[in-house]
Write a structure and sequence with these properties.
By secondary structure, this protein is mainly alpha-helical. The protein has four helices and no strands.
Length: about 100
């Protein structure tokens, strides 16, 4: 797994704008999928794949936030969160 992707995600000296977050989370998810393919035990492989899916959902959540923010700043946090939750449900249900 590329530790550089994860270090870049949480390094305190890195200034990210919101537009960078979805790509960063997707890169971390891809690294986790590669790591899962190398796991010797099915339980570990499944756990790492679950974590990878969470990173994908976070990427989708931030993309939804960006789209809603671009559509109009009058939206409140509850509206943005609701959209992110709906997107996450689609992913987990294979939609």
């Amino acid at each position: 797994m590329s530790a550089g992707v994860l270090k870049r995600a949480w390094a305190s000296d890195v200034q990210m704008n919101d537009g960078d977050k979805p790509q960063l989370y997707r890169e971390a998810a891809e690294s986790l999928r590669r790591l899962a393919s190398q796991a010797p035990l099915p339980d570990i492989q499944g756990d790492v794949l679950d974590l990878s899916a969470r990173f994908e959902r976070m990427a989708m959540y931030f993309e939804a936030q960006l789209r809603l923010g671009a559509a109009g700043e009058e939206r409140d946090d509850q509206t943005v969160f609701g959209c992110g939750a709906a997107v996450a449900e689609d992913v987990t249900e294979g939609g």
